[in-house]
Amino acid sequence: MKIKNEIIIVFDGFCILCNNYTSWLSKNNPDKNIYFTNFESKYIKDKYPKLKLGNTVIVINEKNDILTKSKAIKYCINYIRINIIIKSIINITPNFIIDIFYDLIAKNRYRLFGKNDSCQVPKNINDKNILF
Predict the structure, then answer these.
(1) Rounded CA gap, 54 and 59, in Å?
(2) Which residues pair with residue 7 across a beta bridge?
(3) Checking DSSP bridges between strand 66-68 and strand 7-11, what pairing results, if any?
(4) Which of 13, 19, 51, 111 is a Cys-bridge partner for 38, taking CB atoms 3.0 to 4.6 Å apart?
(5) H or E segment at 84?
(6) How many Cβ atoms from other residues are within 10 Å of residue 105's Cβ?
(7) pLDDT tens digits along 24-76
């Protein structure tokens, strides 16, 4: 299943913040070319068995490059509807600065935002955009 500019986002299905982030991305992706899966999915276990749950969301682009943290965020915002000023600020901010904040939030995400009892996929994502 490859389409032009396909993006796969691998997220922590236990993390409430991660689930909300994927919902927001799905809602703001007009081309519906972002696909979602989590680290527990058969899709990841079969195609990317070395990927393991960590403190980052992972983006797999159309070239099969694996992007994490600031690189993943910057890549995703090019495919969603977002305020141009916010997009510009994110794009010009050095990766190491974004990564500092990313790491701080990621390491404390369960304590700050909560954790689901089981690995989940947000309900408002179109079934055609879920890879399991």
Answers:
(1) 13
(2) 34
(3) unpaired
(4) 13
(5) helix 84-92
(6) 13
(7) 999 999 999 999 998 888 999 999 999 887 788 899 999 999 999 999 999 99
Instruction: Report residue 23 as tokens.
Output: 């919902």
**Closest by CA position to 81, among listed 9, 31, 15, 22:** 31
Ramachandran angles phi, psi of 10, nearest 5°: -105, 120
The owner of tokens 């299905």 is 13
Q: Tens digit of pLDDT for each residue in 79-121?
A: 999 999 999 999 999 999 999 999 999 999 999 999 888 877 7
Nearest residue to 37 via CA among 54, 56, 58, 55: 58
